[in-house]
Amino acid sequence: MLNGSWSTMCTVFGLLLVLINLSARFFPVTSPFMQPDLAFDKEHIWHPYSSMTEPANVWPVVSAEGVRLKLEDGRELIDGMSSWWCAVHGYNHPVLNQAVRDQVEQMSHVMFGGLTHGPAIELGKRLVDMTPAGLEKVFIADSGSVSVEVAIKMAIQYQHAKGETGRTKLLALERGYHGDTLGAMSLCDPNRGMHHLFSGILPTQMFAPAPKTLFSEAWQAEDIEPLANMIKEHHQSLAALILEPVVQGAGGMRFYHPQYLKEARALCDRYGLLLIADEIATGFGRTGKLFACEYADISPDIMCVGKAITGGYMSLAATLATKHVADTISQGEAGCFMHGPTFMGNPLACRVACASLDLLMENDWKSQVTRLEKGLNKGLAPARDIAGVKDVRVLGAIGVIELDQPVDMKALQPACVEKGIWVRPFAQNFYIMPPFVMSDADLATLTSKMLEALNETL
Ligand SMILES: *Cc1c(COP(=O)(O)O)cnc(C)c1O
């Protein structure tokens, strides 16, 4: 009897549990992750380049799928930004999701000092394979800016190891962008950047004028002269030249002539500077080549990659170097390279990066980008007729409408959201770099809505 009522109770209790579970499934309790606390955001959370006293508008996203971002109020936006060059395969990708799941079940993280693991090794193999010839040694970093810091330190340790202790400065290009940490920031455009705010703190570097000959123009031999003269005059204090190959991104979305890169390579060789290629934005197919260096058929001594490396899943970057650079550093006074982030080689990030790089190849990134280039050319061309538009240009899966004046962000950004597209302009540039998987139809909608938004707010 006692046993009977006990088992009845258990059955009833069990049924109750099942019902509670089912109801939670069909009538989900609203979670703060689905209904973000915007008041808290406004009061307490910094956003990129934002003010805490006059926070700019932010739109709450609750999920993303393919090329669409879903806002809290149910609206869907076609994504023109790939979350700042990263989400090349679109969002919520089953293959990338699975890679993360598989790795979580094995281990999310272990320190990289004294230990190693498959995800880091597999990522290293892929990077050595796909990057320009000669880049054989891989330093896995946790963000683009950190990979630039690592590149700077490598260049300086390299020169030091060679006994060139006077070569402590870097040469960079005006209109360049290399990141927001102090060392990287010291290499960004000195006039448009924040140099004056941090003067006395930032390392002082040297700057050559930005390349003038555009990608689409015939090469003008005198374009290399300013750089050549600076290197000739100052090479004894210069460890390296750093530049973004072919596309200067955040410094103005400028596309310059690959011959500049070829000549820069030759100058570095002649005067003993290392060449650092910052391919953080351009890498992994975005410009129509796997790496933009390929337009000039050159290999740098050091290369930074990041952004699209994990397909937008996690923060990860890498600095690759030649055997010569790595060996020289290793034979120097320190006997090793002096850097080692806590989250170096994070297995989750490395695993998803491997999956993302494999997808790039399986999806035939080249034909994806060629298709997008066509759609961008077609879709953005009519902007040339809009008053206030200075230039329209496309390279690979990058499309830029440059205005005469800085964009009116307060008007243009909400106008885009109203029209169901996500585009985040800066300075004079209203630009997009869509996920490689975007369909022709979505791209046509994206570009035509951009033109509408521009027409209404200019
Ligand atoms: C974004 C970017 C960086 C900085 O990368 P973070 O991951 O934001 O630190 C550096 N260089 C270039 C060319 C970039 O586009």
Explain what the structure shows.
The chain is of the alpha/beta class and 458 residues long. The protein has 14 helices and 16 strands. The protein has helices at residues 2-26, 38-44, 82-85, 94-106, 118-130, 144-161, 182-185, 225-234, 258-271, 323-330, 347-362, 365-380, 409-418, 440-457, and strands at residues 61-65, 68-71, 76-79, 135-141, 169-173, 206-208, 238-243, 247-248, 254-255, 274-278, 302-305, 317-322, 389-395, 398-403, 421-422, 429-432. The strands form four sheets. Strands 4-12-11-10-7-5-6 form a seven-stranded mixed β-sheet, with helices on both faces. Helix 5 packs parallel to helix 11 (347-362). The longest helix has 25 residues, at 2-26. Pyridoxal-5'-phosphate binds at residues 143-145, 148, 177-179, 244, 249-250, 278, 280-281, 306-307.
